[in-house]
């Protein structure tokens, strides 16, 4: 059986488009499709942890000390410009990671709405 770390890097589309490779890996495609939501959650969690570490590095002493200078950029102190750009990048990466996690979930109906009728 293939390891979960290896499987986590495969997307659902890649699994469905590579049926010739799966027997070589001795992996059951139905097992992979069943396990994908759980593996995707762990992948999103790993990305969020990596983003936390990146934020910790970006907003901690060594990098902040590099930009704590009297120079200016577009009339702003260099430290303020760095903080603004790093914070905007951090928020954009967070939005991308979270939105990818939401878009891959199965659609759910809104609270109070009726299920679709099967005519």
UniProtKB/TrEMBL annotation:
Keywords recorded for this protein, A-Z: Membrane, Transmembrane, Transmembrane helix
Segments traversing the membrane: 48-67, 79-98
Record protein name field: DUF485 domain-containing protein
Organism expressing this protein natively: Paraburkholderia dipogonis
């Amino acid at each position: 059986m293939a390891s979960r770390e290896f499987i986590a890097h495969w997307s659902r589309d890649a699994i469905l488009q590579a049926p010739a490779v799966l027997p070589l890996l001795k992996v059951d495609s139905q097992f992979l499709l069943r396990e994908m939501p759980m593996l995707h959650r762990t992948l999103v969690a790993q990305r969020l942890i990596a983003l936390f570490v990146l934020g910790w590095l970006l907003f901690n002493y060594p990098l902040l000390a590099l930009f704590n200078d009297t120079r200016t950029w577009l009339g702003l102190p260099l430290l303020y410009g760095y903080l603004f750009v790093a914070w905007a990048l951090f928020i954009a990466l967070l939005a991308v990671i979270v939105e990818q996690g939401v878009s891959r979930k199965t659609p759910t109906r809104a609270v109070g709405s009726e299920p679709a009728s099967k005519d």
